[in-house]
Amino acid sequence: MVLKSFFATKRARKETRDGFISILPWIIGFIIFFFLPVLKSVYYSFTEWSFMIDPVWIGLDNYRYMFTDDPLFYKALSVTFNYVLLSLPIKLFLGVMLALLLNWKIRGMNLYRTLFYIPAVVSGVSVALMWMSLLQPDTGIVNTLLSYIGIQGPGWFWDPKWALISVASLSVWRVGGSAVIYLAGLQNISPQLYEASEIDGAGKIRQFWKITLPLLTPTLLFQLIIEMIGSFKVFTEAFVITGGGPLKATYFYLLYFYEEAFQNSNTGYASALVVVLVIIIMTFTAILRYTSKHWVYYES
């Protein structure tokens, strides 16, 4: 018995060692390309620094200016929050609905799944240019089609009232990527649950509300966090199409960071902006994780 325990322990130690060796490249990459840059960004946020001069320690001056004297900080934060509130529900709802359609057992479904997923891997710059062409106020296809039925299309990206909505509509283009994740969650639900509910007389709508949606909530939580983080980091669309305009209607947080870091060479202040954004994202993620115990259900 002692000999068996010794070999079992030896084997366990070998498996543990081999496991650490296997993930060592990832750990090294994480430390070099993520952890250390994060620490340096936190340090630089307490300095006055540009690429042309060495960093000078100024303590909390960057944060003091940010929260008390910088109107652009609050403008960029407000626009980004509005974008998150506008785009996130759309992406979640359409992603689930599309996943339900892609879960049907019909001929050629694998082709449909592939077609809907392709936009998720297309370059963000090319997508932005395509939508800019489609939504041109005078020559765009969308306004041209609207004119055929007697509707005068808005200015879209070039109208302060519609610019943020137009940028948010671009998020619908990549909903196929979310739908694939939801599809995996749907296919992980036990078919026996649906069979039992049919025996009890439950229809499709009742099955959705009582079985599908509750057991899909773990996937919803995952996607909610991922999509929320992605929404806070929106940049490409505004940079390519609007440049933050018109009248700073699409002046997103990362666009403000980009201008401070690479146009104004105010890298220390830009680092402070990034630190605040990370804190905001971590706070909302922690809130979602904490509240998930009240609305996330697991089959077990």
Helical percentage: over 70%
> How large is the radius of gyration?
25 Å
Q: Enter the CATH topology name of the largest domain.
A: MetI-like fold
User: Overall pLDDT, averaged?
Assistant: 88
Helix and strand arrangement:
Layout lengths: L1 H43 L2 E4 L2 E5 L3 H8 L2 H32 L6 H9 L6 H11 L6 H8 L14 H7 L5 H13 L3 H9 L4 H29 L3 H7 L10 H11 L3 H25 L9
Antiparallel strand pairs: 1-2
Helix pairs in contact: 1-13, 3-7, 3-8, 3-10, 3-12, 5-11, 8-10, 10-13, 12-13
How does this model look, in words?
This protein is an all-alpha fold. It folds into 2 domains: 2-44, no CATH class; 67-294, MetI-like (MetI-like fold). 71% of the residues lie in helices and 3% in strands. The chain contains 13 helices and 2 strands, in the order αββαααααααααααα. It has a two-stranded antiparallel ribbon with strand order 1-2. The two termini are 36 Å apart.
Key descriptive features of the protein:
MetI-like fold; 300 residues; mainly alpha; two-stranded antiparallel ribbon
Concise summary:
By secondary structure, the protein is mainly α. The chain has helices at 2-44, 61-68, 71-102, 109-117, 124-134, 141-148, 163-169, 175-187, 191-199, 204-232, 236-242, 253-263, 267-291; strands at 47-50, 53-57. It folds into two domains: 2-44, no CATH class; 67-294, MetI-like fold.
